[in-house]
Amino acid sequence: MGMNDRQLRRYLRQIRSMLPCGGKRRRELMDNVRSGATRYLEEHPDATAEQVMAYFGAPEAIAASYVESAGTAEILRAVRIRRKITAMVAVVLLVILLSWAAVVTWAVIDAYRDVRGDILVTTTEIERTVIEP
Question: What is the rounded distance in angstroms from the CA atom of residue 47 to the CA atom of residue 41?
Fold first, then answer.
């Protein structure tokens, strides 16, 4: 039985996740790998997943060969960009969490005031005058 589409997608996803490069470069590389794998499977329709991996290499080996061929500056730039994106996502999530905590705190305080009954009680002193007959 040959390699099915699901196995091919999983193999390509593993390669994609191991590439330490940015979006445009990653898309170019993945397009090349995808077209090569598709051509190979058209030529060898009964090829198994193991045969495809033996021909192209394990995802780790493909990522390692990219790292060897790419310049250090390109890989460091991709790592810095990824780090910045991760930091921005963390900040956004923190702001959302703090906003949610403020809303919940305000709701709890408001509910406590309703239950406690902050009622303003005013007393009026009445002066009594006694008239004698």
Answer: 7
Size of the chain, expressed as the number of residues it contains: 133
Contacts of 45 (CB under 8 A, 6+ apart): 2
- Residue carrying the six token digits 């009445």: 126
Return the structure tokens found at 107: 């709701």
pLDDT digits (tens, 9 = 90+) for 8-52: 889 889 998 888 777 788 888 889 888 998 898 888 888 888 888
CB-count exposure of residue 25 (10 Å: 0-12, 13-18, 19+): middle
End-to-end CA distance of the chain: 121
pLDDT digits 0-9 by tens, 36-95: 988 988 888 888 888 888 888 888 888 888 877 777 777 777 778 888 999 999 999 999
116: left (phi over 0), alpha (psi -120 to 50) or beta: alpha
Q: Which class for 130: exposed (0-12), middle (13-18), buried (19 or more C-beta within 10 A)? A: exposed
